[in-house]
Amino acid sequence: PGLRAEVFSLTEAWTPGARGIGVDALAGRDLRGAAVLLHTGWDRHFGTPAYGAGAPFLTGEAAEWLIAEGVTLVGIDSLNIDDTESGGERPTHSALLAAGVHVVEHLTRLGDVPASGARFTAAPPAVEGFGTFPVRAFAEID
């Protein structure tokens, strides 16, 4: 059945000079138990050299807010949910994972998923001993 998906269209919520997605871009919906999917538009660079630098990310403050809202999973269509240009700090990963919130990165085609009314599944193969592993991610529209 998958998780109830709440997709945020954030293509205009960030700029190259201000890449962090904050709380203000996410407020206004019931997110308890949901898979929150962040459509930043960065997936347009997937498979190109441009994909590796300058990607948008979720701020640590926004991660803490999502935890307080009771989300189950956070997915993003970019290289990393944290700022890859911050010198290796991972406040968003650390906060979400410590709270038991799953993280899915490198998503594509989130623009094809409605803001509400879909179910999201991220199914990894049965492999033990890995901290990160590819998943087959898909959304089913209700």
UniProtKB/TrEMBL annotation:
<dbReference type="Pfam" id="PF04199">
    <property type="entry name" value="Cyclase"/>
</dbReference>
<protein>
    <submittedName>
        <fullName>Cyclase</fullName>
    </submittedName>
</protein>
<dbReference type="GO" id="GO:0004061">
    <property type="term" value="F:arylformamidase activity"/>
</dbReference>
<dbReference type="InterPro" id="IPR007325">
    <property type="entry name" value="KFase/CYL"/>
</dbReference>
<dbReference type="InterPro" id="IPR037175">
    <property type="entry name" value="KFase_sf"/>
</dbReference>
<dbReference type="GO" id="GO:0019441">
    <property type="term" value="P:L-tryptophan catabolic process to kynurenine"/>
</dbReference>
